[in-house]
Design goal:
Pfam families: HNHc_6 (PF16784). With about 230 residues, the protein is mainly alpha-helical. The protein has helices at about 20-30, 50-65, 70-85, 95-110, 120-125, 130-140, 180-190, 190-195, 205-215, 220-225, and strands at about 5, 10-15, 150-155, 175, 200-205. The protein is about 45% helix and about 10% strand. The relative contact order is 0.08.
């Protein structure tokens, strides 16, 4: 198996076996090259914490849908494999990379379907939502800290006397936060709280600006067509 090493800032592949034709290509000229595809193999095995996190997430899906727990896990594994165009791997000895990808897929599914994630499972497993997830959670009204029902919190404050239903929010940073964590961020301070919880505020675009003002998106596209 070929290995890749970093030597003096340059990544060098060692032990790669070339076919006779490829070897001839390289011998043609010192400036010649061949295109290669590199696949990084993660030899680290799934941790017990990752495995338990996956099972806990599937338990939440099972509780919400009424389907059997093992069935939910299998469905999510095949859904993840189809989404990422990879093979399904056993959770007994899969790689850390595979486990992380599966966790992301399951959480994205829970966000999309508004499936509640129980207790402090997100915080306990040190999972941090990415910007695309936070953006989706704003529309689904899911707290970026705990997964509870949320409202949109303005990291960049609106200011006293401004009408939120009429002013433009475009360009401002926001986070979906439940009432408990909305109060916490005010008490602790915006920047400190964001760093403390590794949160990723998102920038309000035209679509989210409409959502903040109207509270729904059902007629957003129709109104934009008529403008």
């Amino acid at each position: 198996m070929a290995r890749i090493r970093k030597i003096n800032g340059i990544h060098v592949i060692e032990g790669a076996v070339l076919g006779e034709i490829n070897d001839l290509f390289l011998d043609c000229s010192p400036d010649n090259y061949i295109d290669v595809e590199i696949k990084i193999i993660d030899t680290r095995r799934i941790s017990e914490k990752q495995r338990n996190f996956i099972f806990a997430l599937c338990d939440d899906i099972s509780f919400y849908t009424g389907d059997e727990k093992n069935y939910c896990r299998i469905v999510m594994q095949y859904f993840n494999a189809n989404l990422r165009e990879i093979e399904v791997e056993s959770l007994s000895n899969c790689s850390i990379t595979y486990a992380n990808g599966l966790i992301d897929t399951i959480i994205n599914h829970c966000i999309d379907q508004r499936i509640p994630i129980s207790g402090d499972i997100i915080k306990k497993n040190n999972y941090h939502f990415g910007s695309k997830q936070v953006y989706m959670m704003c529309f689904k009204r899911i707290c970026a800290v705990c997964g509870a029902r949320a409202d949109i919190h303005h990291v960049d404050h609106v200011g006293m006397g401004n009408n939120r239903k009429k002013m433009s929010h475009i360009g401002k940073r926001v986070l979906p936060l439940c009432r408990e964590h909305h109060n916490e961020i005010h008490n602790v301070g915006e920047d400190k709280y964001i760093d403390m919880n590794c949160l990723t505020p998102v920038i309000v675009d035209d679509k989210m600006d409409y959502f903040i003002k109207k509270g729904k998106l059902k007629i957003y596209k129709e109104e934009r067509k008529n403008e």
